[in-house]
Amino acid sequence: MSERIGETPYTSAEEIKKELLEYATKYCSSSFVELIQETLSDYRFFVAPGSIGHHHAYVGGLAKHTLEVARVCVEAYKKQPKLDPDCLIGCAILHDCCKIYEYVLDRHGQYEKSEYYNLVGHVTGGAMLVDRRIPGRQDAVHCLLSHHGKREWGSPVTPRSVEAKILHDADYLCSREVEEVIPAEEVDKETFYPAHTKHMLEHVKKTHQLDVWLG
Ligand SMILES: [Fe+2]
Ligand SMILES: [Fe+2]
Where are the domains of the chain? Predict the structure, then answer.
């Protein structure tokens, strides 16, 4: 069985929540902290799967995937604090939060796509949430709308800012099979996260020629 990129040793929802809240309070502005606190206070965030057919397709997968993406974005921010932390870290934490509405359990206990999935979708839903709760942050709305990277992958716009490009890459790589990104010899359980982050940042630099941003 293959590992998922960014697989963390965390199994407790409480641990994931604590780390995400620490990132929010350390790096984000108060309006984002407030929205993130509220989002993470909904138990469904820690129960929902990351998807039902692709990555993190298990109970709690959404929270784990979110933590993995957030960790990569925090590392990118530490390398380049000129980036906007709300757009990078705040949006990393919120980017898939409306997935809690996308999947419902059927009578057999299997997840299936909800009406919300078909009528709204988490990409648009997340953008609307931020736009409604934190008016005037078009830059953050853009990051949420573009986080799938391409129109054919479900984003109505493609990433135009550095923060949006990094968030998309982090999301993309954190939903791939680990062997697609990290050389096998570097997959070490003890040092998994540093290897993951290192390769992800290298990928971001190469893809978007961001050496000037990420050093
Ligand atoms: Fe997404
Ligand atoms: Fe995601």
Answer: 13-214
Contact 36, 140 (CB under 8 A): no
CA of 149 to the centre of ligand 1 (A): 10
108: amino acid identity, one letter: H
In sign, the C-alpha dihedral spanning 206, 140, 145, 99 is positive
Closest CA to 166 of 182, 146, 196, 181: 146
Topology (CATH level 3) of domain 13-214? Hypothetical protein af1432 (1.10.3210)
Give the separation between CA 169 and CA 47, rounded to whole angstroms: 25
Q: 104 and 92 in contact (C-beta within 8 Å)?
A: no
Backbone angles phi, psi at 161, to 5 degrees: -105, 165
Instruction: Give, in order, the Cα–Cα distances in Å from 110 to each of 31, 55, 88, 101, 127.
Output: 36, 16, 33, 15, 28
- pTM equals 0.83
> How many whole angstroms from 23 Cα to the centroid of ligand 2?
17
* Digit-coded pLDDT (tens) for 107-162: 888 888 999 999 999 999 999 999 999 999 999 999 999 999 999 999 999 999 99
- Distance of CA 101 from the midpoint of ligand 2 (Å): 14
Residue 113 three-state SS: strand
Q: Which of 23, 21, 63 lies closest to 38, judged by CA?
A: 21
Ligand 2 centre distance from Cα of residue 173 (Å): 9
